Fold Flavin-containing monooxygenase.
Amino acid sequence: MPASMMESKYVPRNSNEEAILEMIASMGRVEDHTAPRMAHAEDSNSAQNVWTDRVIIIGAGPSGMATAASLRRKGIPYVLLERASGIASLWKERTYDRLKMHLAKEACELPFKAFPERYPTFITRRQFIDYLEEYARDFCIQPRFNETVQSATFDEASQTWQVQTIAVGPFAEGPRRKLVHTGRWLVVATGENAEMVLPSMPGLNEFKGTYIHSSQYKNGEAYAGKRVLVVGSGNSGMEIALDLANCGANTTMVVRSPVHILTREMFGMSTFSVAMRLTKSLPLWLVDYILVSYSRLALGDTTSLGIQRPKVGPLELKCKMGKTPVLNVGTLEKIQSGDIKVKPAVEQLMEGGARFVDGTSLEFDAIIFATGYKSTVLRWLKDKESFFGTDSLPKERACGRSWKGRNGLYVAGMCNKGVLGGTTDAQRIANHIYSTYFTGTASSAEAEA
């Protein structure tokens, strides 16, 4: 039996689990869990069926791995599909060198494993990647890499999910092969950042300089002495602008819409941790008032710098619109000192630079688009129940109901709450599958949570 098929083998640990194993065995499926049957295929391009009663997890990022570990702890078989060649490809391949978590490490942990005590409060990109790789080893998580999902459809007749993939590498047993995975449950864990977004900006084709998306940016060394425009004022845009300025680039950033800039820490604790504690006993509007007031005292009035604050508070904006406040890591000080210039929206790109909506023009050698990412779930998921909106995100993510659909459909890590949200989703999913389908003890409240 291949090692990749063994990671989720059901191992009983108590009498309840032994009873569950007996139940599964009585249905004649135990052997099929650990050694899926494959239909004969005459050549490397023909379809090949992989039959399994496991949970099918799509995506081996933090949310997918958290789901796999949570299912394993419950003794629930699964198969984990990943289109990239390794785990957490976003973190490894599409993040810049100086990236640090903006939240305290306690808010970035996956289930059942804390960060090492030696790690700082705000961990680095490299430390998080090391943690994820160790997490995969600790929980024997062995995804099927290089396997891209083409479609996922719920079959009413068999009451199962049919997931069609194209595999290359070891699982293809050849250069390329089509596969079909069948499972009772499907977990979408492909994240909110599956594909980069480049804006349709007038004149981009005429611009003679270089331009990249922030996912392609590593550090500012190559931009020393150059005139660089950063389009986007979220956390990535702010931090890339800071990195460029520190590396000697003549940096300008575009701030098109109002944005909340908060301190990363309050009273010696991470701002996020303080906010979470306050929301347990205070209304959201009052917590927002405290966060904004503290930031104004600590950072000054950003309006004078060309950065307007939204009328809606930062937490309310996050809950309703999914827009994350910026946590200042030094960018604001560079703006105040003049090392980073702020401009309004771009009206037109030109051969040698850009014209802005305030009528001014500047010359640039390079442009970095920190314009975010988008989900691509609806390209492959046949969403008959319309659980996802046109943006390929769960419609009710702001209401706390983004983790569970119908017909055994679950979603992990697409609730606009970062790693912590994905971890919460993963444990909810494992608990729900275990209690509802294996023991039948889930309450109606749990079923609708």
